[in-house]
Amino acid sequence: MTPITKVLVANRGEIAIRICRTLRTMGIPSVVVFSEADRGAPHTKAGDEAVLLGAAEPAQSYLNVDRILGAARATGASAIHPGYGFVAENAAFARACAAAGVTFIGPSPESMERLGSKTKAREAAIRLKVPVVPGVEDVPDAARARQEADRIGYPVLLKAASGGGGRGMRRVAKAEEMDGAFESGRREAEASFGDGRLLLEKLVHPARHIEVQILADGKDAIAFGERECSLQRRYQKIVEESPSSAVTPKTRAKLEEAAITLARDARYSGAGTVEFLLGPDGAFYFLEVNTRLQVEHPVTEARFGLDLVRAQIEIAAGGKLPKRPEPKGHAIEVRLNAEDPYRGFIPQSGPISLLAWPPGEGIRVDAGIEEGHPVHAHYDSLLAKVIAYGKDRSEARERLIQALRALALLGIRTNQGFLIDLLASEAFATGETYTHTVESSSWPPPDQVPDEALLAAALALEAPRAALGGRRDADRWSPWRLLGAWGRA
Amino acid sequence: MGTRVSRKVTFRWEGHAIEGSIETRGNRATWTRDAEALDAEIVRDGAWVEIRTTAGASRAAVKAGPKEVWVSLCGRTYVLERAHRTSSGSAAATSNDEIRAPMTGKVVRVTAAAGDQVKEDDLLLTIEAMKMEFKLTAPEDARIEEILCADGDRVELGQLLVRLAPLVEPAKGAS
Predict the structure, then answer these.
(1) Phi/psi zone of residue A329: left (φ > 0), alpha (ψ -120 to 50 degrees), beta?
(2) pLDDT tens, residue order, chain B (175 aa)
(3) What span, in angstroms and rounded, lies between the C-alpha atoms of A28 and A46?
């Protein structure tokens, strides 16, 4: 194995910054890449070197294999960390890396193809006697989809054959909805992954989304417990936690065993996540494998005291699998997104005029944004992840709510207030979390503006700055300020 | 202490007006709305305003722009429009006879055509941003007067996309 002497991070935003942080602690020089839209963006300052890839459109920059490899060559990077999304699950990219003599920090292209395609992974699961949701792969058209759905029984789900994140996914409750759902699902899959093929499966209801974190070295695999990611909107996760309140030790052992079986069979190497649906009867069904680092990996890191990015790099360099420590406590992550939860979660873009992160014990923030920098419509709406760790679920939940109440972000609308309501809800407090929980409940916006907020706004407009004990802006790093908004109001 | 200053302030929030007055003297301020007064000691620190009352203290972060004042308080963000503008709503507001882009993004497909008669909730066009699709539908029964965008166009927040003419309906009889 070639030693890893310099790593190019082929991504942007919070994950690029997070990977650079680990590289720095390992003493490995890092190279970041950026598009024209991302000039000066926070992640461009996270590495030791930065290389412009091309235009804002991902195809010209973060998805462009030739330009990424060109940047690696120009900077002498010996390895590439793809993060998640973009080229992370692209076997052709992994092959191109190998051909260029660059180490791809992830699984081999072969095991990526065996597990990364939902269709092939499902075939492997059936062969290995890992339970799967009843359904059919590669549905050619809406007519065939209707025919199969009649056989399996409604409701059914249409999903993109390659790629995850809920893109291309459609729930179809009855035959009349099939044509429209099929066409728009195919279009979204085509736009997101360059592959419009769809598969169809039975909808398990009410279901929890449970996933198992694995690390493997091509021979052996270790499972690091589960994460529950049931709370989703538009099929995208917004809250993730570990452990799940619904997984018993017995089920956990079976889930981990299923994940390890799949990983070993594919001679998997690196970090990966095996996703399952957990039904109301305790039965679980294999969904798919994400052959990469997950957005929500910090939840596992918090409980196991482990740096998964470091483990990925060590495995890619031919090192040993880390030991599996005993997990402790409870961790919950929320995704702070640039979207308006009160208007159909419509994405928001624009400049961030103010940003103050929450302090607090057990709080970790992985962010890709900075005050004064714009959020672009070209890319993902994820702004930051806020992760809380506690000795148990209730402490972690309480800390996370406090942290979100202390966070201030102005200039673009986010889902911050909605996340507070979600964490404070009866459903979340009691662990009654299902994939439909968010969309089947109503999450009303605040019905009025508190007088404290109006007073503050009126002062900003009408009172001269010099009055009222004004301090200078240069004071922004004072410890007093960093204490944040821990008000009792 | 310093001179007393009292001013009327009007905001628009989520489509309705909020009127009140702000009075300042020294390091104290009073906000009065609907005959209810909030009197507090104020400490300002850059964009932050700490509001101390007998009931306790809270901190708000404020950024005032030419059109809006943004306030963050206890984890919630309030976008208050400055009402001395002539505007009848935010840039993205859509009235019943025009469809505007609710976000910056790309038009995936225009489903309706000029001259079409559409029913309430009929799909007019699909727009995409941040890799997610959003459907824009007719707010009421109408005729499409004009389509101002095409498949593949990049559109800006608030950009006019479709002009609708309401159908002049005869009074509804029993049906």
Answers:
(1) left
(2) 455 668 899 999 998 999 999 998 889 999 999 989 999 999 998 899 999 999 999 999 999 988 899 999 999 999 999 875 333 334 444 466 888 888 888 999 999 898 899 988 889 999 888 777 788 888 888 899 899 999 999 998 888 899 988 776 544 444 4
(3) 13
> How far apart are the two ends of chain B, measured CA to CA in Å?
72
CA–centroid distance for A431 within its chain: 21
H helices present in A194-279, as ranges: 249-265
Check if the beta carbon of residue A393 is closer than 8 Å to that of residue A241.
yes
**Exposure string over A130-143, b if 16+ CB within 10 A, otherwise e:** bebbebbbebeebe
Per the CB < 8 A criterion, the answer to whether A107 and A270 are in contact is yes
- B positions 102-161 inside 8 Å of A (CB): 102-105, 108-109, 126, 128-134, 157
What ipTM does this complex have? Answer: 0.84
Euclidean distance between CA atoms A212 and A294, whole angstroms: 11
Beta strands in A338-484 (DSSP E): 339-340, 346-347, 350-351, 354-356, 363-367, 374-375, 382-390, 408-410
Residues in CB range of A32: below 8 A, 6 or more apart: A8, A9, A16, A20, A43, A44, A46, A47, A49, A50, A51
Q: Which residues of A touch B22 (CB under 8 A)?
A: 455, 458-459, 462-463
A450 in contact with chain B, both atoms CB, cutoff 8 A: yes
Provide φ and ψ at A294, rounded to 5°.
Answer: -95, 155
Chain A nearest C-alpha distance from B5 (Å): 8
- Candidates A163, A129, A133, A89; CA nearest to A286 is A133
Contact B42 A468 (CB under 8 A): yes
A457 touches chain B (CB under 8 A): yes
Nearest CA to A198 out of A284, A256, A140, A238 is that of A140
- Whole-model pTM: value is 0.82
CA distance B47 to chain A (A): 8
- Testing the interface with A: which of B25, B103, B106 to mutate, by most A Cβ within 10 A? B103
CB contact under 8 A, B2 and A449: no
Which chain A positions have a beta carbon within 8 Å of B44's beta carbon?
A: 459, 465, 468-471
Cα separation, A233 vs A239, whole angstroms: 10
Distance, in Å, from the CA atom of A310 to the CA atom of A317, rounded to the nearest integer, reads 11
Given an 8 Å threshold on Cβ–Cβ distance, is B63 in contact with A450?
A: no
Is residue B56 less than 8 Å (CB to CB) from chain A? yes
Band of pLDDT at residue A306, cut at 50, 70 and 90: very high
Query: Which residues of chain B have a CB within 8 Å of the CB of A487?
Result: 50, 56-59, 74
Report strand pairing: B28-33 vs B36-45: antiparallel
- Kindly report the CA angle at A378 between A375 and A384, in degrees rounded to 5? 40
Contacts of A448 (CB under 8 A, 6+ apart): none
